[in-house]
Task: structure prediction
Amino acid sequence: MEKRTFGLRKVSGFRRRSEPDRFGELMRPHFDALYAAARRMSMSAVDAEDLVQEVCLKAFLKLDELESMEYQRAWLLRVLYNQFIDSRRVLQRSPVGMATTGADENDEFEVPAASSWQPEEMLDREMRVELILKAMRLLGSDQCTLVALHDIEGMSLDELQQMTGTPIGTLKSQLHRTRAKLGRLLAKDLAHRPDLKVIGGKQ
Amino acid sequence: MNCQTVAENIDLLVAGKLAPQQRDECRAHAASCRDCADMLRGAEAMLLIRERDTGSAPADLFERTLDRATRRQRAGSGQARFWLGAGFGGAIAASLLAVAMSLGWLAPATVQVAPANEFLITLDQPRDMNIAIDTDRALTGATISILLAGDVELDGFGSRRELTWNTDLEAGVNKLTLPVRAIGAEGGQLVVRMSHPQSEQVYVVNLKIDG
Result:
């Protein structure tokens, strides 16, 4: 150890903001959007709160990094969708079986034609939502995040390109492939559940 | 109508914004094309999720969530952690560089390296560089090392490139003043390393010649 060194002097009059304060300031503008996303991806308010909680825990770990990010909300949403994919607890709790789980997505099955989707054949809305969310869990993490940020959160391909650095053409084709995969998963679920004929959106 | 046209128009199609004729053509194509039917089904499913009524977050959820997140991190670690921050903003003099030391939070046993800051020095004339070290509780036995590289030296220490000593820190902001001067035209780099059991913090300052 050196004998001659420099001393430290206590300075009063200012203090760094605490991490909780910084975190609160950072999260407040994004919190409603996060909760809305979590609510869309959950079957109950309790599950949505759990999802938001997990995102906040991860975000807090990355506070310094997150503060310097340009696309903070997109990062938070990405964490949320990854967390959604990773979550098995909600899946286990669900009363609805997941016929697609053990099946090969390339299995042959009869696909209900889009033109045959009639409102009177549609399942209860929440049951359809549940099947869709389960199918989304079978997507890859990147696929799920891409389709969710674009189709659910409304991010444009330009924004996604800036955020990820992936060319728009590549993003487009990934998006189309992911939607098709999701559609196949849903169709397969229907094929395994003859009582549930239709899943769909607007006519 | 072909698959590419369906793919290009699918957002408008599911949103119900496509002209009736194009809409009918797209749907007719999807009815006979398995790939497009899948894609359409997937896009419509996403729309259904997008349009879900999310309601409003409970009034106290924000506070509850933040409180839980920050408390869980505190509870998860009793180990010391150093980290750097530049959160002093305008309240601090320009010459006071910020090094933050924090205790009792996340404790990865890794070296944390903060982005480099810049400090202007002059040739052959020492200039005081103030480093603020912030800690939320008193620390005993922290080790501080100063490493120098390039055409710079600490006034009074000649050609010494490294200094290391143990010190105690009071809770709050502690100021370390280093008289730095240039001894050549190239400038250099000063590294402050602060260590404590379980963690280590490195702070790099690029020293550039003023003018």
